[in-house]
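Forum: Protein Structure Q&A
Topic: Joint prediction for protein chains with partners

I've read a bunch of threads here and the consensus seems to be that you should model interacting components together rather than docking separate models afterwards. I'd like to see that in practice. Below is the full input, 487 residues plus whatever partners are listed. Could one of the regulars post the assembled result?
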Amino acid sequence: MGYSPYQTAGSQSTLYDLFQQSKFGQQKASSSTQKQKQKLKEEYEAEIKAAQEAALAKQKKHGGFFKGLNILGSFLGPLGAGLTKGISALGQGNQQRKGAKLLLSGVDSDRWDKLFTRNASRAYKEDAESKQMSKGDVFGGAGIAGLTGWGMSKMMGGKKDEGLGKKMFEKPENLESIAPKDNIGIKAPAYGEKLGDTSSVWKDSIGVDSGFDTSIVNAGGRRIQAPDLLSQTAPGAMPQVGQNIQNLGSSMRNIGSSANPAMGGINPDLISNPIGRLVEGKATPFKRLIEELTDFTDLKGQKGFGAAMDKTQQALMLPMLLEQMFGGQY
Amino acid sequence: MYQQSILQSLMDVGFGQMDWSQLGGPGMSSENIASQFAGHYGLTDADVVPGMFQSITPEMLQGASYKTYAPQIQAQGQSMLPDLYKGLGGQAATKAAGGFAGSGGFGQQQAGIRDVYGKGMTDTLSSVRQQQSQGIGNISDLISQWHEMAQNITVGA
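Posted by a regular:
Agreed with the consensus. Here's the joint model:
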């Protein structure tokens, strides 16, 4: 066998090809690695986002209820305010504690700590751990909030809340002595022999500056044209001087039914109660309070700013209602 | 020696005991390499993908094998032999000896011929060894790249 330059060159070129092949394979592997890193990064970020959203949702849960409770508390005197503030803070604190726990439990830190996400994962974990609360923290916060609520209410001149709990569970008829009907609603002025002078009555009592023939007032959320109501009052049923307009209710109730049966008459309580909410029936104040709070916190099925405004309005009316229930004492 | 250290490094990662020829076998598929390296670096199989680990091809193994270059040595040696024989026993040798074998001039001529042959063969052998070493180096680089890819996922690079 003679010397073959082709053979020598051949083995060298094969080696060179191998080197090139290896280099190409290395580039492919690097590309795959980068893709995998990107995929893992996205997976990590999605996990963090999901944990944060879950924590936020948990912390916001029952938020409307606690807000309502705080509003209510500010009208219940020092002890009531302290109590509701404390309960509210306890509930909110507990929700925050549970939410903060989700920040940690929702993320697989063991896994991400081993990957290139280590720095980000550790920073996140430190941040989440700093947001953790013990049950002691929650109770402590609730106590401080309760004391603050109590102190604030005292500063605002709140009175001793005797029998608050009792009143909350009393039937409305028993509350008459606390909040007599003469003190609420619209009372006819002492001048004028009859309600024929209705323009003054409506104008002075409700503050609507309008003429006798054209005045339209809003009583209890319904538009009532004063002259019509009064002109259709049955003969002999005209109220006397100083008589509470709410007494007109019994006669007015019949007006609608006779004149226009479809209208079904006017409920006298709509006149006796200027905020348009009925304080009648057998529901206790506590039950009504819960209903109000439920209405306030339940926004399901309602969308937009208008719905939110309606709910806010209801919430603002709640203290007024309570004030009436307890005769403005609490 | 070099090949043995490479095999040992693979055993450290978790591959079983194997010989050099098994590096291109089914036990060294991309999937298996990914799984072994993931385990070695405390990762899960979901953290790495087989595409990150280029397997060793039969050509790479061939480039790292002495057998690949043996014909080249043989051919080079044989091509030098006629000159060697001629130098050792031909006219040039007779002339150098001055008609008498065993003279000083003859000895020097013989040594010179051997040196020329030896140098030629040494060059050939060196060249072949260098090529084989590059072939082994390719495989070594590839294994280093496996480590690099896995480390890239673990702590970043």
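The radius of gyration of chain B is 25 Å.
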